[in-house]
Design brief:
With 367 residues, this protein is an alpha/beta fold. 34% of the residues lie in helices and 12% in strands. It is built from 13 helices and eight strands. The protein binds manganese (II) ion.
Length: 367
Amino acid sequence: MLWELWEGQPDHMASKRYDPPASLLSGRPPMSDTPDSTRDQQLLMDGIYWYGIPTLFRAPHDADPSNADIGLVGVPHSTGNGTTQRDQHLGPRAVRNVSAIGRRVHNNFGIDPWNACRINDIGDVPLSEGNNNERSIEMITDFYSKLDAADCRPVSIGGDHSITGGILQALGGSESKLTGGEKACLLHFDAHTDAFHNIPHFMGAVKSAAHWASYLVTDGHVDPEHSVQVGIRGNTRSLEWLDPSYSLGYEVIRKTDYDDIGAERVMEIIDERIGDRPLYITFDLDCLDPTVAPGVANIEAGIEGFGIDQVIELLRSVRGKNIIGGDVVCLMPTVDSPNQITSYRSMAIMFEILSLIADRITTGTDP
Ligand SMILES: [Mn+2]
């Protein structure tokens, strides 16, 4: 099929090197100014994942957050997990390798996010002390403070879930520009609550992947009363494992609750809970069923997880809300299937989140 496309191209395809237009570097290719053949060539090549420089979604790389409305960021961090599931720092590179194919329009919203606003690949957070989790969380916070100061909304790929703690220490609370000094509300997709505070550390990691949803509340960065944890499931070590979430004030919708009450009611709860407060979306891939997303850390196999359509529906239900950013975490490329399906799932979720933000910017309701 692809070969037929090439066969049908004029001779110059065979004789000329493909030169991406300089305009691609700005992220705004002037399609209408170019001959159709050049445009088609560009679209063809840009959609091939193995071609070219593997930035996230083939977005222009620009480390200055003041040049972007939405900043795509990699957070190659894995020592916050506390267990031996340490390959999560390979997540950003794995998504970079496939995400060119995700540079698409959003048919459901009827928008082209890439032309609706400025979306750049800001790069990876440099974590030169990666084996020191606490220092790394500080460095993540410093990095995102610069995005917050520049009104740049981050959509990030981790990394283990401890990165969300570092990110929201910058994005939520009295110092935050993106929230206007308010705490952030969370829409938290996960098989686990990550709200443990009855133990001081998780195998040495203090601001760990198991603690972030707790200390962000007690330190004043997250508003639990207007946040929702959804998709929680699994056979746990303690029958009281949800108590920390309840005592902090979170709404918890287990996967079995979702099955019982249905998607419509869940979306109503999310809407009522969050309203139009500043919202941050954090998406742990382990909320998906292992057959849907096999390459995750801390896999939960005993209860069926979400399908991809179910989480996409829930994500789209917050369309129009004031989303200050989001992340996708816990990708384990080293245990993914050979066709890298979990990296593609990560790309798909990132695309939904960035499209939600671009849609709000496009419709002019962004504050
Ligand atoms: Mn989890």
